[in-house]
Amino acid sequence: MRMKDTVVLVTGSAQGIGRAIAIRLAQEGARIVVEDRQDNAMAGQTLDSVRAAGSDGCVIAGDVGSVENDRAIIEQAVAKMGRLDVLVNNAGVERRAPFLDVTEADYDLVMNVNLKGAFFLTQAFVKHLRDTQRGGRIVNVSSVHEELPFPHFASYCASKGGMKMMMRNLAIELAPLGITVNNVAPGAVGTPINQQLLANKAQLEALVANIPLGRLANPSEVANAVLFLASPEASYVTGTTLFVDGGLLWNYAEQ
């Protein structure tokens, strides 16, 4: 088992890609901290799936858009699990609007969850590793939109572009501590965040036509990429983005 006895915090893991990551790492022996904005039934279902995979863990609730909550999440995770070895910054939101109609509230929500949350959770996690004199792994779930423009989603693209540069900078700054930092950048994935797209046949067909592999990804395919970067197999990989997009990034054209 590649992740045996490793303790992993996965943010936003009550559903979608986060849940798939939690389950996949649990299958490889990791103990999982399931984090979501609320300790709800879906978070409990993820923990049940982690246990069904032969591992264990706990549920911690907190809004990652709050620095105070970020510090509390790390503290609670360490208190419940004894330590943390890997942080997966997966929590993310998006809001669709033409640029001229974007509200401050929606902008703040997207940037706070997607970028500010990842930044300060990482800071608190790294302080824990430093204080316990251990190396570790940080994997951010970014998006093809750290590179690819996405009209009507300017704040989302800005947050993911920021995550790209944050990852590159921290990979250099944290390397002396034995900490690797990488991104996994999914393309189109069949998850709840894409519910409207999945329900619009014309939009879905236009998108799939841009994907050389001719289909959307399964959440488990993204989880496999996270597993690699979180595992000992990726011990010499840092400062890079692993795209999981079926070739979308290099074949995309606005319709």
From TrEMBL:
InterPro entries linked: KR_dom, NAD(P)-bd_dom_sf, Sc_DH/Rdtase_CS, SDR_fam
Record domain Ketoreductase: where: 6-187
Gene3D superfamilies named in the record: NAD(P)-binding Rossmann-like Domain
Alphabetical list of Pfam families matching this protein: adh_short_C2 (PF13561)
Enzyme's top EC category: oxidoreductase
GO MF term (any one): glucose 1-dehydrogenase [NAD(P)+] activity
Enzyme Commission code: 1.1.1.47
SUPFAM superfamilies found in the cross-reference section: NAD(P)-binding Rossmann-fold domains (SSF51735)
Record key words, sorted: Oxidoreductase
PANTHER family: OXIDOREDUCTASE, SHORT-CHAIN DEHYDROGENASE/REDUCTASE FAMILY (AFU_ORTHOLOGUE AFUA_5G02870), SHORT-CHAIN DEHYDROGENASE_REDUCTASE FAMILY PROTEIN
Family to which the UniProt record says this protein belongs: Belongs to the short-chain dehydrogenases/reductases (SDR) family.
Protein name according to UniProt: Glucose 1-dehydrogenase
UniProt source species: Pandoraea sputorum
